[in-house]
Structure formats: structure tokens, C-alpha cells
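Running low. Got one?
___
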Amino acid sequence: MARVCQVSPATVASWIDQGHLKGHRTPTGRRRVASRDLVEFLRAHGMPVPPELLGEAPGEMIVVVEDDVAYLRALVRTLERSELDIEVVEATNGVDGLLEIGRVQPSVIVLDYRLPDLNAAQLIERLLAPGRGPDAEVVVVTGGMDDQEVARVRALGVTRIVDKTDGMDAVVEAIRQGLGRRQAA
């Protein structure tokens, strides 16, 4: 963003922190701005909009809810390097995850099964409360679930469960499949 705006990264951070540029901080401290918000900001301030931002449909929104910050950072880095046209919003617990899901209306939700406040099944049940059902594909990542936990999550409609030991590429592939399913619907 600093390069696009031809200012220092500290200036962009200040714009976000002061509310001049619509953005947010992730739980890991990074600042994020949606491409459509950056275009709006540039136009409102008479700044040139780079051709690569013009006419570009905003990427699909993905919410990743993961309490292991090291794993979360690694997954976000992997997603940023993937060819998927996505914007990632992060949360490190179930309550913040619910808030972010409600705020951004993601295409895909990636949930760690074991969170400190809610497990993935409890979070999905809250999302499926009458009138609050998400219009999103759900991917559950886990370090291990027993058969009863798998059955509970599958009964809630989750078809994509990825074991963390399968690696980041397996999570990216599950997200890709979720995006493909949404686009085919």
C-alpha cells in the first residue's frame, strides 16, 4: 500500500490507526485493507489508482479462526503465496471469530477444532442459529478429533476436515474446493 500511495509504510499505518483509511488490525498485529477500500481512499484523495486495482473484483473473503498464533501466521503466509484470489481475516478465539464472520460475510471459514473458548462444533452451532446461518463453506482443521467429534461436525454439514499433520497445502486445497463449490452453486 505504501508503494501504491507513494508514502512510507508508517504513514499508511497512521492513516489506518486514525481511521482515515478503512482497515483493521489482525490478532497478530498486521494491518489489512481491502482492495476496494484502498481504491475508494485513493479516489477520495485525488491519488492515482494503479491499473492493477482498477476493475479488479475484490478477492473472496476468508476468515481463519486459530488460537495457535504460530500456525495461524504460517497458514496466512501460505495463503498469501497461493494463487487464490482471497483476502484473509484472522481471529484467535471463537468469540472474535464469530464477530469477524458477521462483519465480513466470508466465502470460506477455516476453524481450528479446539479453541480456548468454543470448539468448532459449538461455533458452527452458533452460526446456524435461526436467521444467522452463514452463507459460507466451512473447513475444520484439527490436531486430532475422535470419531464422535468428527460425526458431530459432519452432522452440522461440514464436509472438509483437514488434519494439521497433512500440511498447509491440504488446507489450501480444502479452501480451493470450498471456493469452487460456492462458485458452482
Notes: Residues 125 and 156 are 7 Å apart (CA to CA).
